[in-house]
Amino acid sequence: MDQWYKIDNAGKVFHAVSERANSSVFRIAMIMNEHVQPDKLQTSLDHVMKRFPMFAVKLGRGVFWDFLVENDKKLFVKEESTFPCSPVDPIETNGYLFRVLYYKKRISVEFFHSVTDGTGALEFLKALVFDYLNQTGEQPNNDGTVIDVSGTPSEYELDDSYQNYKSSDSSKRTKEENAYQIKGTPIEETVVIHGVMSALELRKAAKTIQVQSLPTLLRF
């Protein structure tokens, strides 16, 4: 019998509001020193998918609610050919709710937000790139911060953390200022802006206004 999973509270929101103009898809990427070898990346993806069963799912539709169900089809890596974070087409991904892309020296993963958040996507990408580097003969050292793809998932990786850690205590509402309203004409398409800046100069500028957390953020 196929394993199935409930869509958690946050996932239900993204599932409900996603549309062509708001794909609820996000991306994390890493840049390699050499051009990506698609065959080796595919081998690594096959390895990693066995370690992340919570991502090896497709959308199931029930009478009253939708859910995620085990997907035993193969997910193929693809060369990037369209704009980032486009809606995930289950026909193109064999039902999977994310994609693995490569372009020149870049490896990217794009997830529909109902499947995971940024932390889960980062752990997946780290494991994928680590295995890929092994496939290419680099033999990187795992300092314990990369999930071992030969291991088995813990129960905590498969549960709904909100249900485990939510509190029944009512919180006191704090007074908040109105959010800043951006004015102008909406753009009905995806726009990608690339920027390059000096981290050193950015740190200097941050210190002048006493921003303390920036050095920590820059380590990423």
Summarize this, please?
With about 220 residues, the protein is α+β, with helices and mostly antiparallel strands. It has helices at about 10-15, 40-50, 120-135, 155-160, 160-165, 200-210, 215-220; strands spanning about 5, 25-30, 55-60, 65-70, 80, 100-105, 105-110. It is built from 7 helices and 7 strands, in the order βαβαβββββααααα.
Provide an overview of this structure.
- With 220 residues, the chain is an alpha+beta fold.
- The protein has a domain of 151 residues: Chloramphenicol Acetyltransferase (2-Layer Sandwich), CATH 3.30.559.10.
- Helices cover 30% and strands 15% of the residues.
- A hairpin with a 4-residue loop joins strand 3 and strand 4.
- It is globular, with a radius of gyration of 20 Å.
- The C terminus is likely disordered.
CATH superfamily of the domain at 4-154: Chloramphenicol acetyltransferase-like domain
Strand content: 15-25%
- Total strands: the figure is 7
Q: Given this structure, which CATH class of the domain at 4-154 is correct?
A: Alpha Beta
| Alpha carbon gyration radius | 20 Å
What's the architecture of the domain at 4-154, going by CATH?
2-Layer Sandwich
What is the average per-residue confidence, as pLDDT, rounded to a whole number? 79
Major sheet size, sense and barrel closure: 4 strands, mixed
User: What characteristic shape results from the CA principal axes?
Assistant: globular
Computed structural class: alpha+beta
- Helical fraction equals 25-40%
Helix/strand order: EHEHEEEEEHHHHH
Task: Provide the spatial order of strands within the biggest beta sheet.
Answer: 2-7-6-5
